[in-house]
Design brief:
Structural class: alpha/beta
Number of strands: 10
Low-confidence stretches: none
CATH superfamily: P-loop containing nucleotide triphosphate hydrolases
Helix content: 25-40%
Number of helices: 6
Mean pLDDT: 89
CATH class: Alpha Beta
CATH topology: Rossmann fold
Distance between the termini: 23 Å
Order of helices and strands: EEEHEEHEHHHEHEEE
Shape: globular
CATH architecture: 3-Layer(aba) Sandwich
Strand order of the largest sheet: 6-7-8-3-9-10
Number of domains: 1
Length: about 230
């Protein structure tokens, strides 16, 4: 499996005790598949995403990304693993206002040490893949909300990640633009063989997923994806 969470338990300080955010969570996501994690606010979805992204170390359990157990790595080595194998699509795009769409992607390439010419070619290819071939030199204020989210997705894919983690990608979009973004994520997942996890509270989103899990009180329950 490209992404494996095995027996994950995560607690936080809560007064004199501990609050359990994740309780013995197990999840495997094969390459080329989309897993939707649904559940109400406070159910543990954000904690799950943070652990899968190796941003938070669990109290117990393993996080295996592309065959590497992240839980035994140093902080520096986890950062390298994250940079090389994990793409994150945040709820809000947070694009840098002074940069064009293509430059947003080139920043990611620079951080990973990619050669400028190859990076520029890949950035243009990714923008075309998300439907923004003619928008590469527009700045964020010149793009619609849906277009900014597409740049956000392309940026997350810039370093060819094995795992793609997506946090409520349509919360700021209307239904039509949101549906288009979800269709795009499903298509890119299969075309690029990423192991994609989509965290959402919207009950309509799982229709595009291969696997659906419901989170409640820090525990996961599987249910069939829509056919």
């Amino acid at each position: 499996m490209t992404l494996l969470l095995d027996g994950i338990t995560l607690t936080y300080p809560d007064g004199e005790g501990r609050l359990t955010a994740l309780d013995s969570v197990a999840l495997d996501v094969p390459p080329g598949s989309l897993t939707a994690v649904v559940g109400p606010s406070g159910s543990g979805k954000s904690s799950l995403l943070a652990v899968a992204a190796t941003l938070v170390t669990p109290d117990a359990g393993r996080v295996v990304v592309a065959g590497t157990d992240a839980t035994v790595l140093s902080r520096a080595d986890r950062a390298v693993l994250r940079r090389e194998h994990i793409g994150i699509v945040f709820q809000q795009p947070h694009l840098l206002p002074a940069l064009t769409a293509v430059e947003q992607l080139l920043v990611m390439a620079h951080l990973s040490g990619r050669k400028p010419r190859r990076a520029a070619d890949r950035a243009r290819e990714l923008l075309a893949a998300v439907g923004l071939a003619g928008q590469a030199h527009r700045r964020s204020h010149q793009l619609s909300g849906g277009q900014r989210q597409r740049v956000n997705i392309a940026r997350a894919l810039m370093n060819d990640p094995s795992v793609l983690l997506v946090d409520e990608p349509t919360s700021a979009l209307d239904h039509e633009r949101g549906a288009a973004v979800l269709d795009l994520l499903a298509t890119l997942t299969r075309e690029r063989s990423t192991a994609t996890v989509l965290v959402t509270h919207d009950p309509s989103h799982p229709a595009r997923a291969d696997q659906v899990v419901t989170m409640a009180d820090g525990r996961l329950r599987r249910r069939p994806a829509a056919s």
